[in-house]
Write a structure and sequence with these properties.
Elements: H1 2-8, E1 14-19, H2 21-38, E2 44-50, H3 54-61, E3 69-77, E4 88-92, E5 102-110, H4 114-124, E6 130-139, E7 151-156, E8 160-162, E9 178-181
Parallel strand pairs: 2-3, 2-5, 5-6, 6-7
Antiparallel strand pairs: 1-9, 3-4, 8-9
This protein binds inosinic acid and magnesium ion (MG).
Length: 183
């Protein structure tokens, strides 16, 4: 397995696969159904937070059987390595009108909730009809204060996770499964 991973990534070792392709596909299908049922009517705009959510959004919207629009935002938190700081800035903004629409903000992983909180504030100022959040992975849920995502794929272990969109130093995003790496 490590040999295979070394062929496609920068060479850092993976400790183990945490969520494999089948588990992800199954949970994403369930989430899509939950989301479709949650929004019986109205305009739905799914906003993915790049870059981490790009694969999740692509898979998720194909499982939401109702009309919707897709857009993206890029929010970057300052800070390096494997921790996230409290400062979040927008590097790319959605060009779509948010007013009067149901907005579903999609994240790859929520840890402190700082990114979500800051982006939620920006979105709320644009008068959407409603605003909910969906994250594939929820890390640290019990210790987080304030914002809790409404739709959660999996509770994540405290390890640093990569793959299926998640990176470490921009590597590993293209792995089709989610794995933990040595810190
Ligand atoms: P928060 O602002 O503390 O909730 O952190 C969320 C952001 O931190 C995510 O969008 C990721 O970019 C990054 N992040 C947190 N944990 C991990 C991880 O285990 N792997 C990769 N990125 C992570
Ligand atoms: Mg990231």
């Amino acid at each position: 397995m490590q040999g295979e991973i070394r062929k496609v990534t920068g060479g850092r070792d993976i400790v183990g696969v945490v969520f494999d392709e089948d588990a992800i596909a199954q949970r994403v299908a369930e989430l899509g159904q939950e989301i479709a049922e949650f929004y019986p009517e109205g305009d739905l705009l799914v906003i993915g937070l790049l870059k981490g959510s790009f694969i999740f959004v692509a898979d998720l919207v194909r499982r939401i059987a109702r009309p919707l629009e897709v857009d993206f935002m890029i929010a970057a938190s300052y800070g390096t390595g494997t921790t996230s700081s409290g400062n979040v800035r927008l590097l790319y903004d959605s060009g779509t009108t948010l007013e009067g629409k149901h907005i579903l903000l999609v994240e790859d992983i929520v840890e402190s909730g700082n990114t979500l909180k800051r982006v939620n504030t920006l979105i709320e100022a644009r008068n959407p009809q409603s605003l909910e959040t969906c994250t594939l992975l929820d890390k640290n849920r019990s210790r987080r204060q304030g914002v809790q995502p409404r739709f959660v794929g999996f509770d994540a272990p405290p390890d640093f996770l990569v793959g299926y969109g998640l990176d470490h130093a921009e590597d590993f995003r293209h792995l089709p499964y989610i794995a933990s790496i040595e810190g």
